[in-house]
Design a protein that fits this description.
By secondary structure, the protein is an alpha+beta fold. It has two domains: 145 residues, Jelly Rolls (Sandwich), CATH 2.60.120.10; 77 residues, Orthogonal Bundle (Arc Repressor Mutant, subunit A), CATH 1.10.10.10. It is built from nine helices and nine strands. The chain is globular and about 55 Å long.
Length: 229
């Protein structure tokens, strides 16, 4: 129980525990076990049976898929408080994505244990359904961007999402810890196109490029680029 209470602050900001009482959160957390993964270690592969549910407590995780041609696409960068695995509502389901760690700590529930918790606490099941709906909506929105928008607003939208998700305010700018290659994978664009656009925006003072980091210096201008034709 003491171990569960250690993670209580995380539960207050996690989408999984939204609206649940502290006692219920502690009860659910007490049935999980902590795990750690090193950078680039694979947590699960696409096609694996869903045997565990993972909640990220520290670090970051990349959720990816590979196209038929072998091109890797980053679907999501998970941050602490997020559920990183698919949430199976049907027993025997399999992962449709691959999860790769970036030096992270997790809490893991066996699928049967998590299913029992959802049966016991209906609000937990409602949260799971809400998370699935939100992720489907996000994928639909990104598909619409790819299908209808030119490269500049698509890239701007990708940066805006990361700004909200993993942006960190530093002095007068916001830092996004992401490589240009990863950004290309997240927006379904060629790396050279992303590099060209970012260089142009750097010349305009919108952002500044660093190794594995993008500094946003003009947030209003970035949002304007999202609406560009």
């Amino acid at each position: 129980m003491a171990e569960a209470e250690k993670y209580s602050p995380l539960a207050t900001r996690s989408e999984l525990f939204a609206g649940l009482s502290s006692s219920v959160c502690t009860n659910i957390l007490s049935t999980a076990r902590p795990m750690s993964f090193t950078s680039r270690q694979v947590i699960y592969f696409a096609g694996d049976q869903i045997k565990q549910i993972f909640l990220l407590t520290d670090g970051r995780v990349r959720i990816t898929q590979f196209s038929e041609r072998g091109t890797e696409v980053i679907l999501r960068l998970c941050i602490p408080g997020e559920v990183i695995s698919e949430l199976a509502l049907v027993p025997g389901s399999r992962h449709s994505t691959t999860a790769q760690a970036q030096d992270c700590d997790l809490l893991a529930w066996d699928s049967a244990t998590f299913e029992a918790a959802m049966e016991r606490f209906p609000d937990l099941r409602s949260n799971v359904k809400r998370i699935l709906e939100q992720r489907l909506h996000e994928l639909e929105r990104r598909f619409c961007e790819v299908a209808t928008e030119t490269v500049a607003p698509r890239l701007a939208h990708g940066l805006a999402r990361l700004l909200d998700q993993i942006g960190r305010k530093v002095n007068s700018h916001v830092e996004i810890n992401v490589s240009q290659e990863a950004l290309a994978q997240m927006t379904s664009m060629a790396s050279f196109t992303v590099c060209r656009l970012l260089a142009n925006w750097e010349n305009q003072g919108v952002l500044k490029l660093r190794r594995e980091m993008i500094e946003i210096h003009n947030v209003p201008r970035l949002f304007d680029l999202c609406k560009a034709k």
